Amino acid sequence: MTSDERKAALDAIAAEVRDCTNCRLAQTRTRAVPGEGSPDTEVVFVGEGPGYHEDQQGRPFVGRAGELLGKLLGSIEWRRQDVFITNIVKCRPPDNRDPEPDEVAACAPYLERQLEALNPALVVTLGRHSMARFMPGARISQVHGTTARVAPATGARDATVLAMYHPAAALRTPAIERESYEDIGRAPRALLDARARRAAALPAADAAAETITEPAAADAFAEPDDLTIFQQA
Ligand code: URA
Ligand code: SF4
Q1: What is the pLDDT of residues 14-23, one digit of tens each?
Q2: Which of 40, 60, 87, 111 is the most exposed place for a label (fewest CB within 10 A)?
Q3: Domains in the chain and their CATH numbers?
Q4: CB 158 within 8 A of CB 201
């Protein structure tokens, strides 16, 4: 997909989400929150579901948890607008209760399609509900800060997942906040490793095309200490 095609696909998904009535959360939401970010990114952050402020504004992670997410990103010199940020459920569960399994299942196709369009190298999960999608059976206290391969059935064809605690948990517990800074500190290396793995798996013709259209990415292999997020071709 070209950048324009990815943007069109993401816009189409967002339009469907805004009008969606596929589960009971549609009845209590103010605005659905499809997610937002760069259509050309290699990195997708997946939270749990919108809270009060997200529901009011129709944008992900704009409340206090979002402020902390911004600081966590800043600590590795990444910017919100260079990644894509979305949630497992796109509408706010009333009183911020956990999403029910049938709500999670009803909403899953939207995240799958976002991941298909973006084809990220790295998925960063924020909290248990998001982790459960990408690391089935794992326990957050054991796997936060670790990576695994993502199953293609999630929509992400060839991605690595990095599990993190939810920023709201970090806001409640200083020890979790400290661990969250350590955990996100592993993201740049995880991205480089995932990018190298994906490049090695490319057929030679595709790899040559990437080199021509994407000199910045080629530079990244020569200079492994450069941890910037590069845009996809
Ligand atoms: N918490 C989430 O999980 N997602 C948001 O978008 C905001 C808070
Ligand atoms: Fe539709 Fe998902 Fe909102 Fe449920 S949570 S109404 S499935 S967009």
Answers
A1: 999 999 999 9
A2: 40
A3: 3-222 (3.40.470.10)
A4: yes
